[in-house]
Amino acid sequence: MITFIPLTGFLGAGKTTTMTATALALQEQGRKVAVITNDQGVELVDTKLVRSKLDSVAEVTGGCFCCKFEDLVEAIVALVSSDDVDTVIAEAVGSCTDLQATVVRPLRQYYGQDMVVAPLTTVVDPLRHLAFARAAERGEPESDLSYLFRQQLTEADVIAVNKLDTISAERAEDLLDSLRKAHPNARVVGYSAGTGEHLGSLLQAWRAPATNGDVRLDIDYDRYAAAEAQLAWMNQELDLTAAGDSFDATTWARTLLEDLSAWALRNDAVIGHAKITVELADGDFAKLSLTESGAEPTLDRAAASAPTGGRAVVNARVACEPDALDSAVTQAVAAADRAAGVTSSATTPVSFKPSYPRPVHRLAPAGA
């Protein structure tokens, strides 16, 4: 019997880090674990990093799990058949919701004889949650993005508050308490996927029965689509060539994200996330990420070598128009080229807005 562990949560919450950290922890317990990444586009930065740490990795691209349900099932079957896995962890697109009805229940109904579906887990960034909460406290009308975030919390069996190391212990406890009061049908756990602190509490929550499976999400799909359409999505590849003997891949990527971060702050553009990998000829790579306008990039992996060239992949999800994101990234690439002594050429410039979500299945709770 296969165990399937579904993760959801807003962009930048740390789903990929959570997925990787828990997969490694489960492997230490003797489980054979595979993971599945998911995105509206193709060429995923996260997949490269995950494959550097785990053997069994698959992608579902070009749409969320609900709209690519058959692709999700095919990915699970392929991983189990080829790698003999017993546990699959899958992270949904960060702008996706209504997963109980469109993914969890269909998997249980149509594949329950071969698969145990673990409680649906919503991963939460505490700073993002506090930002949405402060807007509500000020009496501001609920934005479409905040509406989507709230729906992700409402349908969760487990609310997994990640990155607790980024706030004080007192604020962390207050946040956990407020989430428990607001969502009494969910188990609320706090941890840090980056440091591993309290990660065991999340693993334990997955072993408990689902508590919120009968929830019937009263979701306005027009508003859901509007929330996704607020974000411009860019997946871009660039070929990099050093002007001299070599260049620093980390400096190039850091400069690009710093420039994009400053642009977003000036233009009041919410960054869902922005991630970059720079792949080198010898197989080494650097990865950096950004989850907040005006913030400093996070170094997820540094490249050890000094290359003469490489291939960069940029994934950016920003609340702006696609042409504005195209312009901002073009400007940021130019700044990175100057800082690192690089000549770059874009091979696939792509910015877009997601299409209207049309799930393959949408099942009501049993008995409803």
TrEMBL record:
<dbReference type="InterPro" id="IPR003495">
    <property type="entry name" value="CobW/HypB/UreG_nucleotide-bd"/>
</dbReference>
<dbReference type="InterPro" id="IPR051316">
    <property type="entry name" value="Zinc-reg_GTPase_activator"/>
</dbReference>
<dbReference type="Pfam" id="PF02492">
    <property type="entry name" value="cobW"/>
</dbReference>
<protein>
    <submittedName>
        <fullName>GTP-binding protein</fullName>
    </submittedName>
</protein>
<feature type="region of interest" description="Disordered">
    <location>
        <begin position="346"/>
        <end position="368"/>
    </location>
</feature>
<dbReference type="InterPro" id="IPR027417">
    <property type="entry name" value="P-loop_NTPase"/>
</dbReference>
<feature type="domain" description="CobW/HypB/UreG nucleotide-binding">
    <location>
        <begin position="6"/>
        <end position="189"/>
    </location>
</feature>
